[in-house]
Write a structure and sequence with these properties.
Layout: E1 16-23, E2 28-34, E3 39-43, E4 49-56, E5 58-63, E6 66-71, E7 74-78, E8 84-87, E9 94-101
Antiparallel strand pairs: 1-2, 2-9, 3-8, 4-7, 4-9, 5-6, 5-8
Domain Cupin type-2: 31-96
Protein name: Cupin domain-containing protein
Organism: Halorientalis regularis
């Protein structure tokens, strides 16, 4: 297996592509590619923290009632039980990873 696990992803407008990059007993790492206008609906992980690493593009991140525009490279920490999501309000593709740890059991 190659060391670089980031796949080549190219979503269409409004499309979200996600793939698991690493799964262990301790962590889940996924990549999300958001086409223009695409959105990850706000959601909560009660038993885990979630970290977004914005690798490419500019994304609007939502945490509870707060929104912020994050341009790559950027890192966003989402606390346990904190509602979080992301949307692409640009004409370019956004690539981010999300690390969930510890894995809910």
């Amino acid at each position: 297996m190659p060391l670089d696990r980031l796949p080549d992803v190219d979503p269409d407008a409004g499309e979200v592509i996600d793939e698991e990059l690493a799964v262990s007993d301790d962590v889940l790492v996924k990549v999300f590619a958001l086409g223009p206008g695409a959105e990850l609906d706000p959601h909560v992980h009660d038993d885990a923290s979630n970290v977004f690493h914005v690798l490419d593009g500019t994304v609007t991140v939502v945490q509870d009632d707060t929104e912020a525009t994050i341009t790559a490279p950027g890192v966003v920490f989402n606390e346990r039980s904190q509602s979080h999501g992301a949307r692409n309000e640009t004409d370019d593709v956004v690539i981010l990873t999300a690390s969930l740890c510890p894995l809910p059991g």
